[in-house]
Each structure stands twice: as C-alpha cells, then as structure tokens.
C-alpha cells in the first residue's frame, strides 16, 4: 500500500485515510439550537489593544473653549460635530495634528484631558495611515480636563508646545 497525503499508518499496519481539508478547517461548536458558531477565541489569539495613554490632547480655539466653559462642557468643534465624535490626539500625535489642521492659527489652546475619566465613550480608532486616534463619543465633561495651555506660534510659524505627558 502507498501512503498518500493525509493518510496515516495505524499501529496494526493498516492505513487510515482522512480528509485533510476538513481537518484543517476551524472546529465549530454546536449550540443548543443546532446551529453552529466558531469556538471562542483563546487569550493568545485575541487582538491586541493599544495601551490607553493617561493623558490625551484636544486643540481648541479660544472662542470655542470660552463657550465650553460657559456651558460646563465641550460638545466639539464643527468638524467634531460633523463626524459625530470629538477628535483627540496622543502626545505623539498632537504636533502633526496641529501642523495638518491648524497651521498658522495663533488663537489656539491645548487642552490636556485625563483619558481614564472619559470611560467607555473614549475609543481608539484607525485614522491617518492606520494609526489609532482617540475619539470621544460624548461631550467632554470639564472635570476630566487636567490643564489648558496656550498654543502659540513660534518664529518659524509652527506651534510651540508645552512639555507633554505621554
């Protein structure tokens, strides 16, 4: 007898044939209703989540922030309202955000926010080239704000950032 791909020789010398394609398919678990579902993921094959930084940043113009302080919350800039969430950046992302979306503007503030205080409404989602950016699907409560700094322009026309906590 000749062994073919997928065959297996038993201890008694006989050959057992198996369906290789079926054996390589993920195993399905039967439910009580008789339909099938894939097995639960194990911890090893769970997708990795990026660690949530303790502080995230929002660039806001002065009039919008003054309105937020008067209202007791920040609902978002016009772009945030159009997108359905408040855009934030991490310490590593905020300089690029300023350069791309706020170039040349000298009426800006940098709002530092405690990410943990935002709860499940804060999600990290892919944006620019697949990088994960923080998006808040709620109004920003002012009690989550750690500090507010001016974001002036330097002599080179770029924004000068205070020291950022990563």
Automatic annotation (TrEMBL):
PANTHER family: BLR1139 PROTEIN, DUF952 DOMAIN-CONTAINING PROTEIN. The lineage of its organism: Bacteria, Pseudomonadati, Pseudomonadota, Alphaproteobacteria, Hyphomicrobiales. It comes from Siculibacillus lacustris. InterPro entries: DUF952 (IPR009297). Pfam families: DUF952. It comes from the Bacteria. This is DUF952 domain-containing protein. SUPFAM superfamilies: ADP-ribosylation.
